[in-house]
Task: inverse folding
């Protein structure tokens, strides 16, 4: 029988919440011993412990795995919906025409900023910076408002809203762009309302890197900022892009973009090179195959959610982004504090869940009915189908 | 404060080791309460519990997740290496010529049966059924023997051993076959030694479905049996294949084979159709993207291990198979007993780990030095990079 003090003596390691302590574990021979150990750990706020036990007495090897996950107390971490500290999202608000094997919609609300903000709105109150034309529909504006999205930074310019149309292949792994009319988006110059500039979270959607940098420069109190980009900027605006992402805490890109940006075909090597460019939290999205989070201190991977049928994958990557950064905003995540990497892992799971919901209906339609309870239930599903 | 009895009253559900019990959780307000609960659960051998707690008293929402994983006692489950109940593996033993971007080997030991048996040899003592020619090298035989593999069923026929040569693409996602000389393998007719016929585990490697069925028919005491197949048999021997796999407990195939066999492009739908054909434990391998296990009662998914560099992927799928079924043989897994699906999940993880080791060197070279400690450490890595 060991005392909690003895246990803590061995198990406590500053800055390390995952400890393998053979020497203690070997002394545990009954369930009571384990409970005494647990008690000590809980009282001292230990977050995650793994214990391997070999019980010699009865000549049977026995393995006990005990993991305890206990978020620290503190108001920021415990709010379920964090409207106080919000997220600024910059990007496109658009109309899309989409055809998939499941159907065709000529014109519906779309755009990266739209998807990111709608997805993040389940966790925090996003403030968007975007431009639309004078054809922007009141019903679409109303949808965004109904989800608590701040539209003060949504500029209405003379002309038409950005329009994109595309058609997906039978297996939906490829899509062909049929039409891209930039319209008012061609001259988009993000204008930040004063109230936006002191917000702690910033997501810079896929626009010109210099514009992303300009927005970043106006934010005064950032806790966690980053964004995404695309092949076009990587290829043709490389030096601007590198100057932009060097300020970022996180970057979300897909695997082919990661390979292009780094010049490495192995993702582990690619990630190392990209983290050296600035963003120390690198999310690599792999579509149906899931996502990975690289950090200098470790790696997290999750498979994609296996949907029965995918109606329309448009916006799934943006919804991932909204869930990822939205969840962190809700939790009051702060790089200056003590970081629990599992908080970032859970952000990747919430991102994955949001991406999967997006595919279940055309365009943004899923967000007309989706509830936070459904989201939390899907996160539990992720836990169940990845548990071993 | 609640008593263990109260807790167990609510938390115990027959046949269900994953319980969400809000009503009990709401009564827990201190770490001591949780420990009392834990104590009760451990004493009654509960395997996995999840508790969500909302503590109202201090007006801070708090979440506690406690998961306990405790394999039941019992000699079969607790042996680390199970030599008593062994695994029969049927398939090819061959020589391979392989070229990858990392190098070229003209002729080295290969074949599905070889890889499966070497991989499984870290968990149980495999007995192989295969044929080689009179050119089969004594050193190669010695490698197999040194890993505890029973060669009584390895027939030596007049002629040459099966030879295959191929070259991998730069990113190693494709390979081109340069040469296939079936040699003595062309007339392979598996002959089971008497001692093999009473073994409880059987893996039928990728050979003619009728031959697989014939071997299956000779096994008297099977606990868990199955195997793999390939496009050729699915396309040209479909009815034979269907008659063969209807007897199987498990099938291991890759995603393109699953789609071909089922005629469904959605993997969830494909899996349902394949399980209806017989095998109620369906492992779908996705190469670098990981693997999935489908069962009528649920789904498990794991991402692929992210190697720094892949030297030679030849045999990785077979090593996955060897790890999967080898681990279950070690555990004394029995479909007739009470099944813990997490045992099968862990088998998929061991399979994934073995597949990843295989790629680290050319051919079977990694198995010349690999230790069980390295394998267990990699399984722990899987746990770490999938934890959230």
Result:
């Amino acid at each position: 029988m060991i005392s909690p003090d003895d246990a803590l003596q061995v198990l406590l390691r500053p800055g390390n919440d995952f400890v393998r302590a053979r020497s203690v574990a070997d002394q545990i021979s009954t369930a009571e011993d384990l409970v005494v150990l647990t008690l000590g750990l809980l009282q001292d706020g230990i977050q995650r412990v793994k214990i391997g036990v070999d019980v010699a007495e009865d000549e049977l090897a026995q393995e006990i795995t005990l993991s305890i996950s206990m978020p620290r107390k503190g108001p920021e971490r415990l709010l379920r919906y964090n409207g106080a500290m919000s997220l600024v999202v910059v990007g496109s608000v658009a109309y899309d025409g989409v055809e998939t094997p499941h159907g065709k919609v000529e014109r519906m609300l779309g755009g990266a900023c739209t998807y990111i903000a709608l997805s993040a709105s389940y966790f925090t109150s996003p403030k968007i910076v975007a431009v639309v034309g004078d054809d922007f529909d009141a019903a679409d504006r109303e949808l965004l408002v109904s989800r608590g999205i701040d539209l003060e930074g949504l500029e209405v310019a003379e002309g038409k809203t950005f329009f994109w149309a595309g058609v997906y292949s039978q297996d939906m792994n490829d899509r062909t762009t049929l039409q891209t009319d930039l319209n008012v988006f061609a001259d988009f110059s993000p204008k930040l309302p004063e109230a936006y500039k002191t917000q702690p979270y910033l997501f810079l959607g896929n626009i010109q890197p210099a514009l992303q940098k300009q927005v970043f420069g106006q934010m005064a109190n950032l806790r966690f900022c980053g964004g995404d980009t695309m092949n076009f900027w990587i290829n043709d605006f490389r030096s601007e892009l590198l100057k932009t992402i060097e300020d970022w805490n996180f970057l979300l890109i897909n695997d082919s973009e990661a390979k292009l940006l780094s010049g490495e075909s192995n993702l582990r090597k690619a990630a190392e090179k990209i983290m050296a460019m600035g963003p120390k939290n690198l999310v690599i999205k792999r579509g149906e195959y899931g996502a990975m989070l690289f950090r200098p201190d470790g790696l997290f991977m999750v498979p994609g959610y296996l949907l029965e049928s995918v109606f329309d994958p448009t916006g799934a990557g943006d919804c991932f982004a909204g869930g990822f950064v939205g969840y962190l905003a809700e939790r009051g995540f702060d790089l200056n504090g003590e970081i629990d990497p599992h908080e970032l892992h859970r952000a990747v799971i919430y991102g994955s869940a949001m991406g999967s919901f997006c595919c279940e209906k055309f365009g943004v339609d899923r967000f007309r009915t989706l509830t936070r309870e459904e989201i939390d239930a899907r996160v539990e599903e992720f836990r169940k189908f990845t548990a071993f």
Remarks:
- The mean pLDDT of chain B is 84.
- The two ends of chain B are 29 Å apart (CA to CA).
- The longest helix of chain B spans residues 341-358.
- Chain B touches chain A through 61 residues (CB under 8 Å).
